[in-house]
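user: can you give me the structure for this one chain? tokens are fine.
assistant: on it. calling the predictor now.
[tool input]
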Amino acid sequence: MATEIYIVRHGETMFNQLNKVQGWCDSPLTVKGINDLKVTANALSQVHFDNMYSSDLKRAIDTVHLMKDANQVSEIGKIKKLPEFREVFFGSFEGDDIEETWKEVALAAGVGPQTDVTKIINQVGIYEFREATKKADPRHLAENKKELDERMVRAINVLHELTKNEKRILIVSHGDFIKTLAIKYWNQSDGLHDIVFPNNGSVTRGILRDNGNFEIVDYNVNAEDM
């Protein structure tokens, strides 16, 4: 039995609002973030889910509970938290200004002091971009492409085991992690260049098949348009 996966990006947070790097570090949802999520939750309130899951970071947990509380046609028990669906880890850059961080990454990638992350990725490719992030990190803790790719594969394998008897599930994750999943598993991505960053509260839909193969069929969609 194939499982339909609705991947929701968490709502806007304080660090999103302040333009700070937010990977494994956490900050609370803003009032705007909560209000935007209510729109998503209302749009999905009549969609039946066999289960709901989330990343183990608080901004994702708070988001999934908004989805759960608004849904009128599903009986969801305790939410299982999956660390495999955490945001990308940015090491020593966590909490820093985003533009200053990308400037350091661009220098490490050898493309000069740029702050436009899309331009950096498209110049060197997603693989070299992740390597440059780890290289630029003074403590070299940031996830590189190999580490992140292994975690994405593990995330899909974990979900495959959990959802064998579930036809449709919802999971709340994070912007860069969802984008990187789409670069890998969406047929409209070439697997190397950047794609648009998913909006807070947006829905990315995938199909997880019996044999464990995963593909993304809709990316960064407004829930009201699903």
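assistant: here you go. The helical segments are 14-17, 31-43, 58-70, 98-109, 117-136, 145-162, 175-185. The first strand starts at residue 3 and ends at 9.
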